[in-house]
């Protein structure tokens, strides 16, 4: 297939959970706390990602139930890289080589995403997520409650304040990703791990793989 002389998008913004990686980070942490916590947290995550309840109503609640320790975040960082989407590393490399700006934009926990960013050969400054805080012995003491990314519409807020090369493509699986549609030029629903019908119905394009993403951007 011939390549476009100029990429179709100047910036590609990638969600992480169930997009770049096949896990939902907070749900993965909840599983370490036993089946009851895991069930409650997974239900809240699913409802928020389908748009049935605002993310801000469940964000702090989920973390309060889990109370992840620093070592839990270290383990999650390894899990993210172990579950990375097929062809994601090569696709990101090819996009950047073609001059496309690539950003990670996630409502997940930034502490656990930095290893994944390094795996993708991205700068740590290209990772936008929610910081969590620990005490001197690694116990959870809270998260950045001022972060827009703990709210349903937060991705549009963050993106509107970032210097991005246009046109911009947002790629993700949930309603928090779809909410960024107002500030990007095109929204792609990623269904490589999970398909959320309310998101797919409103997407400009549906992508099943990172190979399809590369074709969309580079031709």
Q: What does this protein look like?
A:
Helix content is 42%, strand content 17%. By secondary structure, it is of the alpha/beta class. The chain has a 6-stranded parallel beta sheet with strand order 3-2-1-6-7-8, with helices on both faces. A two-stranded antiparallel sheet has the order 4-5. It is globular, with a radius of gyration of 17 Å.
Order of helices and strands: EHHHHHEHEEEHEHEHEH
Assembly status: single chain
The count of strands amounts to: 8
What proportion of the residues form beta strands (DSSP E)?
A: 15-25%
Based on secondary structure, the structural category is: alpha/beta
Task: Provide tags for this entry.
8 strands; single chain; six-stranded parallel β-sheet; globular; alpha/beta; two-stranded antiparallel ribbon
């Amino acid at each position: 297939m011939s390549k476009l002389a100029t990429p179709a998008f100047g910036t590609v913004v990638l969600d992480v959970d169930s997009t770049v990686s096949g896990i939902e980070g907070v749900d993965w942490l909840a599983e370490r706390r036993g089946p009851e916590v895991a069930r409650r947290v997974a239900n809240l995550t699913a409802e928020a990602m389908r748009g049935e309840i605002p993310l801000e109503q469940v964000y702090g609640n989920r973390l309060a139930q889990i109370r992840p320790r620093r070592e839990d975040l270290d383990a999650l960082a390894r899990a993210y890289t172990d579950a990375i989407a097929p062809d994601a590393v090569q696709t990101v490399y090819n996009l950047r080589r073609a001059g496309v700006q690539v950003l990670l934009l996630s409502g997940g926990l930034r502490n656990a995403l930095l290893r994944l960013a390094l795996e993708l050969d991205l700068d740590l400054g290209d990772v936008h997520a929610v910081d969590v805080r620990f005490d001197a012995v690694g116990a959870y003491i809270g998260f950045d409650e001022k972060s827009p990314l703990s709210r349903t519409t937060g991705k549009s807020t963050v993106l509107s304040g970032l210097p991005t090369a246009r046109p911009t493509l947002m790629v993700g699986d949930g309603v928090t990703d779809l909410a960024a549609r107002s500030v990007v030029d095109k929204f792609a629903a990623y269904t490589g791990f999970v398909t959320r019908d309310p998101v797919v119905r409103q997407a400009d394009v549906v992508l099943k793989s990172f190979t399809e993403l590369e074709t969309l951007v580079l031709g």
